[in-house]
Design goal:
By secondary structure, the chain is an alpha/beta fold. The chain has 2 domains: 5-246, TIM Barrel (Alpha-Beta Barrel), CATH 3.20.20; 249-277, no CATH class. The protein contains 11 helices and 10 strands. It has helices spanning 18-27, 39-48, 59-62, 74-86, 106-120, 134-142, 158-161, 171-187, 199-208, 229-232, 250-266; strands at residues 5-7, 10-13, 31-35, 52-55, 92-96, 124-126, 147-152, 191-195, 213-216, 224-227. An 8-stranded parallel β-barrel has the order 3-4-5-6-7-8-9-10, surrounded by 7 helices. Helix 2 (39-48) packs across helix 4 and helix 4 (74-86) runs parallel beside helix 5.
């Protein structure tokens, strides 16, 4: 199977890199990003043409059943990233640094990022925050590790916010987000996730910086979009924010298939003679 995909204006993008994303922004080609946590799904998403796979700390919710992303550890993230890397030939793989692995100081953050890169084979890390993490971003990038930023609703800070409501509606917070975006760009981030902020603000920020922006609940004016794959495929049934589009309803499909299997087993219809040795 060939892994080569050619984008209009992007020459022979065999492996998506941070430079590829920069070229896509320059050419106005939207970037498609989804989450992945395991080998099987990563291979499917990569084959389908997703540009960036985020090994997100959202694994805490959709894989481990936690209420927030806070419980994820660095070891958890490394395990999931190792699984994803084995299934990918083309996509850029970005790994979330989990809560507690980088907030202490820049030295600790660098050690966490180095572990991710050395132990997984991923291509970049992502962390949340603005001005408060600039020194950390610079330290990590200075060691040769690409960093993606994350502004707006930052789930690791949910206990600080106390709500998942849209961020930066008020001008003071919006102005700080604008400043933070520029600071992260100047610090060397190759891209920036904008989560759950007004679409007009996201479009403004996207136009004002040179690095690609990836929106989630931030409107169509970003340079790309990201969703949690379990949400996009309809595998989660109790989480339906307005920014999620269900491209499939796999929870129902899987339920029907499993019920058919159980029924066949109960009635000794499985395995058949042809399915036996």
């Amino acid at each position: 199977m060939s892994t080569q995909t050619v984008f209009p204006g992007v020459v022979n993008a065999r492996r998506v890199t941070t430079q590829t994303l920069q070229e896509m922004k320059a050419e106005g080609i939207p970037i498609a990003m989804l989450t992945a946590y395991d080998f099987t799904m990563a291979r499917i998403l990569d084959t389908a043409g997703v540009d960036v796979l985020l090994v997100g700390d959202s694994a805490s919710n959709v894989m481990a059943g936690h209420e927030t992303t806070v419980p994820m550890t660095l070891d958890h993230m490394i395990y999931h990233a190792q699984c994803v890397v084995r299934g990918v030939q083309r996509a850029l793989i970005v790994v979330d640094l989990p809560f507690g692995s980088y907030q202490g100081n820049a030295k600790e953050a660098l050690a966490s990022a180095i572990r991710v890169m050395k132990e997984t084979g991923a291509h970049a890390v992502k962390l949340e925050g603005g001005a408060n993490v600039v020194a950390t971003v610079e330290r990590i990038i200075g060691a040769g590790i690409p960093v993606m930023g994350h502004l707006g609703l930052t789930p690791q800070s949910i206990y600080k916010f106390g709500t998942y409501k849209v961020r930066a509606r008020e001008e003071e917070e919006a102005d700080q987000l604008r400043k933070d975006a520029r600071l992260l760009e100047e610090a060397g981030c190759f891209g920036l996730v904008l989560e759950k902020i007004p679409a007009e603000l996201a479009a403004e920020v996207s136009a004002s910086i040179q690095i690609p922006t990836i929106g989630i609940g931030a409107g169509v004016g970003c340079d790309g979009q990201v969703l949690v794959t379990h949400d996009a495929l309809g595998l989660t049934t109790d989480f339906n924010p307005r920014f999620v589009r269900h491209y499939a309803e796999l929870a129902g499909t899987i339920t029907d298939a499993v019920q058919a299997y159980v029924d066949d087993v109960r009635h000794r219809a499985f395995p058949s003679e042809d399915e036996s040795y």
